[in-house]
Amino acid sequence: MPPSIDSGIRYDRQVRLWGEEGQASIGSASVCVLGCDSLGTEILKSLVLAGVHAFCIIDGTTVEPSDIGQNFFLHVDDIGKPRAEVVLDKLLELNPSVHGSISCQPPNLLTNEDLTTISKFTVVVSANQTEEVDMTFSKALYNIGIPLVCVKTYGLLGSVKICINEHTILNTHEDNSNPDLRLDVPFEKLSQLVKEVDLNEISVDELRHTPYLLLYFKALEVYRKERNDLVAFPENYKDRQRIQQILKDFRRSSEESGSKDSENFDEARAAVNRAFQRTTIGNSLKSILTDNLCSTSTKPFWIICEALRQFAEANNGLLPLRGTLPDMASDTNRYTRLTTIFHEKALVDAKEVVQLAKAIEKKRGVDGIISDEIVYRFCKNADKILVQRGSCLDYASELPNVVKTIREQFEDGSTSGSVGSATWVLLLRAVERFRKEKGRFPGTNGVPVSIDARDLKVRIESLVRETETVQQDTDAFDQVLQKVSDSAIAEMCRFGAAELHVISSYIGGIAAQEVIKLSTNQYVPIDNTFVFDGHTQQSASFKF
Amino acid sequence: MPNDEKVSVDPLASERWRSIRRLTDRESAFAPEWFQPGPANFEFLQKAKVLVIGAGGLGCELLKDLAMSGFRLIDVIDMDTIDLSNLNRQFLFREADVGKSKAEVAAAFVNRRVQGCKVTPHNCRIEDKSPDFYRQFFMVICGLDSIPARRWINAMLCSLVDETADGQPDMSTIVPMIDGGTEGFKGSARVIYPKMSACVDCTIDLYPPQVNFPLCTIAHTPRLPEHCIEYIKVVVWPEEKPFDGADLDADDPTHVDWVLQRAEQRANQYNIRGVDRRLTLGVLKRIIPAVATTNAVIAASCALEALKLATNISKPLDNYLNFTQVQGAYTCVVSLERDKNCFTCSGGHVPIEIHPTATFESLVTRVTEKFHLKNPTLETALRKLYCISLLFPQLEEESHRNLHLSIKDVLHDGDEVLLSDVALPRAITLRIRFND
């Protein structure tokens, strides 16, 4: 069903970012969220607004007075009601096209049978769950290829961790790639157009309205003549300086102003280093195209990659033309002719890839799963595809990595001024262990903060001892502990399980955006741990 | 005070605000030196009057975040009405609210949802309010999408600061400003103490200049679909005066259809691809893409700083945060410095170095870009040099003549030039320096 006009307007501001195809992916995504405290609810809020197909809340608690001071979607009158039920009703008000459901079973009591039903979700989010729940879900989801986003808030801290086996990205939206101009390997129609232009024959006015791509080809002609080499191409800085000089010499002064400067030559000069690059397949893409999955997988992404690989093999190692040109100062005629021949050539190339992809589909017994449109977009963004690989969540096995990162951090733990982000990660882990062993969080139950701080420190020491890297090295143990200052430990106790709405909202916004990345296969998700420190508003990302 | 009573009779007060109270009542090495843990902090927060400017994407989030942080006296200004395209992020509004005042609907919603919170709406322009209105607030938190509005409130808050006998800013007259901004997956948040730290105009270079298509390109050598649409907007519409000479209203679908159809014709004539309704609306309304998630992050970042300023639970942001979530999630905090020549917070002259043989036009273009101006007027103490205004038709010819003259034929080295524009809250004095 095509989107109605109303939903077209409702989602207009975001479709301008991720396109109709991105919106369609969101519109067919189902998200499961474990826990609807303030954090889980804020994540859901953003996803409902974005227009997911459906969501499911798994939360077994009833609304308590402390929820009212944290969760905007709960009212004083809701105290005592099942939390998931109230949150569901309030969330559904935000967007009439979204479907919602709940399970009032606490996430830690789900049976293996329950876990099998989660395979229907696009993404699962764990909001402030215990380490056991996180790991149980990760284990169940990792093997069936469903991403798990583990999100935590504590006092002024927050973290987002993404656990996924493999994530394929159709468009990273990275905007720093070089344009696909084919200066070294022009296609036929482009060569023809270049041939038609003679810079010496045209008027000064026409020269000044010549798009710089044509100036480049003309400069290349001169460059080749100078070297007496028909295929010479500037390979280094010095060569490109020569191109700059040739371009400079092309300029002519007009009678009125006496100046030789004009916008198109300015643009030409500025873009030389990015434009004069050989047309090659980048290393990241090359490793994707040589991945074993290209020759075996039945997933659309890998089938199209295989089609791309076959295309390149048949076309002297060239990928399909992307077909988009940067804007260039120009008269109308020559710029539109350029854009038209680039566009048409890109269509021809993409059609070839479509044929290849269809043949592979057939061979692998998955006919008709790939649309022409997705192949066209794939070819257009071939420089922007990416594959991320991650691991199943295992808090014990990531700990040595956390400790190693702390050792390598620059900050001096003796001053309270700066605490490294990895140190906060360790402290969060210690708090969780404290909770597990004592049945409450540090800084709660009226126990003096100073006493809990001592108990928390013991847990930090045991966590660090457990890591293999430092077991043989007593110096290392001290080094790490030195970086965990007493004031940072006291701060964890000060928080006393505080759940600040602003932190939930901040981390919830980030987590929801990661869910959108994972369900649209656009943009690059966090790989794999993001940590936020509300004290300074600094953050860091780690691969733990 | 009535507010005190409410706090003390709220039977849930201690449990409801338990999380915030952990931070306001306990000591910390991460708080400023003057932080004194205790119940007074939270009481102060509940009595602090704060102003939110804008009830849009950031504004809705800000109102929620502030109310959920314990603020109870919140005012909100917005002159806009609710549009269907707001509903992907402005979560206090429903389809039935389309057409109503954003400030009023947002205030009513928060007041209904958060017991004890009193949000007062102002359905008007920020310029409609007096200095005395702004003076009453403990701080101002902005969720704006326009640079001129940011500059206006910034200048207003700077003007509220009195000086003590020894020439220092009188701390009791400082109204801090917290400013958030988003575009797509990028955003920023900053804290400004007027006349104490870098203000909006100290760092005006941070904002990208508005992209304007040169008239000669759109008229004679269009090459992009945007050029075709812009041409219909700025040339054809005023010429043909459709709809009985009505002003072009991008919210009127029949107007948009008219522009779209004419732009398509023009695009076909020039063989340009890509004119469609979405692009037409984007160009006509200068639409900035927006998502709920970035607004949530930036508003929370601002509200966190508001919470810190009101309670001192942690040291404030120092002082500018950049955020982007395209590749992973990334934040960067930088400490911006005050410009001692800032024309807004230092009352300084802006030095302009220019070659004496450059054209006067190049000076006009340069200041227009530098200060994000629309239609500047330049004058010395003796005469107007450039002024295009229906009020002074006699100056137009001379203004155009001056554009083609060399600087040295219009001005002397060391001259002061007064620069004014609708985008400037008040005129700027430029000091011209010749760099031969």
From TrEMBL, chain A:
<dbReference type="GO" id="GO:0019781">
    <property type="term" value="F:NEDD8 activating enzyme activity"/>
</dbReference>
<comment type="similarity">
    <text>Belongs to the ubiquitin-activating E1 family. ULA1 subfamily.</text>
</comment>
<dbReference type="GO" id="GO:0045116">
    <property type="term" value="P:protein neddylation"/>
</dbReference>
<dbReference type="InterPro" id="IPR035985">
    <property type="entry name" value="Ubiquitin-activating_enz"/>
</dbReference>
<dbReference type="InterPro" id="IPR045886">
    <property type="entry name" value="ThiF/MoeB/HesA"/>
</dbReference>
<dbReference type="Pfam" id="PF00899">
    <property type="entry name" value="ThiF"/>
</dbReference>
<feature type="domain" description="THIF-type NAD/FAD binding fold">
    <location>
        <begin position="11"/>
        <end position="538"/>
    </location>
</feature>
<comment type="pathway">
    <text>Protein modification; protein neddylation.</text>
</comment>
<keyword id="KW-0833">Ubl conjugation pathway</keyword>
<protein>
    <recommendedName>
        <fullName>NEDD8-activating enzyme E1 regulatory subunit</fullName>
    </recommendedName>
</protein>
<dbReference type="InterPro" id="IPR000594">
    <property type="entry name" value="ThiF_NAD_FAD-bd"/>
</dbReference>
<dbReference type="InterPro" id="IPR030667">
    <property type="entry name" value="APP-BP1"/>
</dbReference>
<dbReference type="GO" id="GO:0005737">
    <property type="term" value="C:cytoplasm"/>
</dbReference>
TrEMBL record, chain B:
<feature type="domain" description="E2 binding">
    <location>
        <begin position="352"/>
        <end position="435"/>
    </location>
</feature>
<dbReference type="InterPro" id="IPR023318">
    <property type="entry name" value="Ub_act_enz_dom_a_sf"/>
</dbReference>
<keyword id="KW-0436">Ligase</keyword>
<keyword id="KW-0833">Ubl conjugation pathway</keyword>
<protein>
    <recommendedName>
        <fullName>NEDD8-activating enzyme E1 catalytic subunit</fullName>
        <ecNumber>6.2.1.64</ecNumber>
    </recommendedName>
</protein>
<dbReference type="Pfam" id="PF00899">
    <property type="entry name" value="ThiF"/>
</dbReference>
<dbReference type="GO" id="GO:0045116">
    <property type="term" value="P:protein neddylation"/>
</dbReference>
<dbReference type="InterPro" id="IPR033127">
    <property type="entry name" value="UBQ-activ_enz_E1_Cys_AS"/>
</dbReference>
<dbReference type="InterPro" id="IPR000594">
    <property type="entry name" value="ThiF_NAD_FAD-bd"/>
</dbReference>
<keyword id="KW-0067">ATP-binding</keyword>
<comment type="function">
    <text>Catalytic subunit of the dimeric E1 enzyme, which activates NEDD8.</text>
</comment>
<dbReference type="GO" id="GO:0005524">
    <property type="term" value="F:ATP binding"/>
</dbReference>
<dbReference type="InterPro" id="IPR030468">
    <property type="entry name" value="Uba3_N"/>
</dbReference>
<dbReference type="Pfam" id="PF08825">
    <property type="entry name" value="E2_bind"/>
</dbReference>
<dbReference type="InterPro" id="IPR014929">
    <property type="entry name" value="E2-binding"/>
</dbReference>
<comment type="pathway">
    <text>Protein modification; protein neddylation.</text>
</comment>
<dbReference type="GO" id="GO:0005737">
    <property type="term" value="C:cytoplasm"/>
</dbReference>
<dbReference type="InterPro" id="IPR045886">
    <property type="entry name" value="ThiF/MoeB/HesA"/>
</dbReference>
<dbReference type="InterPro" id="IPR035985">
    <property type="entry name" value="Ubiquitin-activating_enz"/>
</dbReference>
<dbReference type="GO" id="GO:0019781">
    <property type="term" value="F:NEDD8 activating enzyme activity"/>
</dbReference>
<comment type="similarity">
    <text>Belongs to the ubiquitin-activating E1 family. UBA3 subfamily.</text>
</comment>
<feature type="active site" description="Glycyl thioester intermediate">
    <location>
        <position position="216"/>
    </location>
</feature>
